[in-house]
Amino acid sequence: MVAASLGEVVACLIRVPSEVVKQRAQVSPSSSTLRILSHTLYHEGVQGLYRGYKSTVLREIPFSLVQFPLWESLKDLWSWKQGHVVDSWQSAVCGAFAGGFAAAVTTPLDVAKTRIMLAKAGSSNARGNVLAALGGIWRTQGLPGLFAGVVPRMAAISLGGFIFLGTYEKTRQLLL
Question: Which spans of this chain does UniProt mark as Solcar repeats (predicted)?
Answer without folding.
Answer: 1-77, 86-174
